[in-house]
Amino acid sequence: MRLIDRLYQTIRFVKDNGRLLFQVFAIRLGSEMKTTQICHFLVVKNPVYARISLYAISSLLFFNPNVKVNIHCDKCCFRTLNPMTRLLFGSRVTLIRSDNRHQDPMFEKAKLLVSLQGTRDFFIDADTRINGKLPVFSNIGLLVREFKLSESEVWRELLNRIRAKSLDGAMLNTTFFTWGNRNLNLSLQNFTDFYSRFMRLNWEEISLEFKIVDKQYLRLVEQFFFSIELSQQRVVFLKSEDSVADKGLIESSYYGASGYRFGR
User: What was the pLDDT predicted at 179?
Assistant: First the structure.
């Protein structure tokens, strides 16, 4: 690693962790407000996400003291999260452990999002940081509208291959998601059927034809599902555009895709 890169990494480490400690200190000293909303995080499979999630939780509670946090986790992440969240956040954070989870975290994320229908609860990805007070939505809300699916040669082909009911939607970023009390009566079975069709596509053929890496598309299966299902719905967005660690209201490290993470 070059000296300048090492220096930058050290500065970021000090700033990110100093900010986390300051926020935790302020949260623990502050009086606990009445809970008006619940935020859900999903932390499974990789304990690195358990450590990354501390930046999301501390920043969320610092700017939004009326929010209570539920973390949905598996056994391995529970072991990492339990002592840290009890020490840092006390009763403000609840761990919901289930050892009977699908091996694909994106399946688990879709299952969680479907279960939140009809509530004002919201979901945030664990590899994020919150930089302000989040609005309360009275309609479906997501992080950002990324691009029109029909304008992408690959996604247009995937829409045709899975025989999607709508070919006119946009790719919606589900880093932040709330139903705003709406209920579209989507079921886990709806997603399970979609997931099976998507995974059974001939990815070897698709990869060769479009010169793509299939994993980059497979990991977006739940995002693709909700983009199709919400294509005819009114959706409100938190941001007009988004990039890694952009200092926006919610900034994501997109750790799974970029390898960037806060505090390091």
Answer: 98
pLDDT at 163: 81
Put the strands of the sheet holding 93-97 in their side by side order. Answer: 93-97, 67-73, 37-43, 122-124, 170-178, 140-148, 235-237
Which residue is associated with the tokens 């003291």?
A: 65
Q: What is the pLDDT of residues 184-240, one digit of tens each?
A: 999 999 999 999 999 999 999 999 998 888 888 999 999 999 999 999 999 999 999
20-68 per-position pLDDT tens digit: 999 999 999 887 778 889 999 999 999 999 999 999 999 999 999 999 9
120: left (phi over 0), alpha (psi -120 to 50) or beta: alpha
Q: Which residues pair with 148 in a beta bridge?
A: 170
* Closest to 92 in 3D by CA, of 66, 122, 73, 117: 66
What's the pTM?
Answer: 0.91
Q: What is the DSSP string of the chain?
A: --HHHHHHHHHHHHHHHHHHHHHHHHHHHSPPPPP-EEEEEEE-S-HHHHHHHHHHHHHHHHH-TTEEEEEEE-HHHHHHHHHHHHHHHGGGEEEEE-S---SSHHHHHHHHHHHTTTSS-EEE-SSEEE-SPPPPPSSEEEEEEEEEGGGSHHHHHHHHHTT-S-SS-EEEEEEEEE-TT------HHHHHHHHHHHHTS-HHHHHHHHT--HHHHHTTHHHHHHHHHTTTS-EEES-S---TT--SSEEE--HHHH---TT-
